[in-house]
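Exercise 3.2. Students should predict the tertiary structure of the chain below and write it as structure tokens, then compare their answer with the key that follows.

Predict this chain's 3D structure.
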Amino acid sequence: MTDTGYRALLAQREALEKQIEELRNAERGDAIEWIREQMALYEVKPEELEPRSSRGPRKQSKPVAAKYRDPASGATWSGRGKPPRWIAGQDRDKFAITD
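Answer key:
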């Protein structure tokens, strides 16, 4: 079995890629000129083309006060996220900080 058909297709692909590159380079200048004309017409500044942030800068969250304390080690937990081993599966009222 020969792979001449496969080799022929590879050669065609290479020739097409070369043609694509040549056309892109030839038409690129026209595209840039058209973009410049549109920017001048609508008075668009280059810095306006930068991507916009979908929301403002994220605010830094403040630390949350501890709600529970381990009497054995003194470790604390705010009640957010996964509970530590010392409180998991137990009544949280007995660990509550009552300051």
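Discussion points: The mean pLDDT is 89. Residues 4 and 10 are 10 Å apart (CA to CA).
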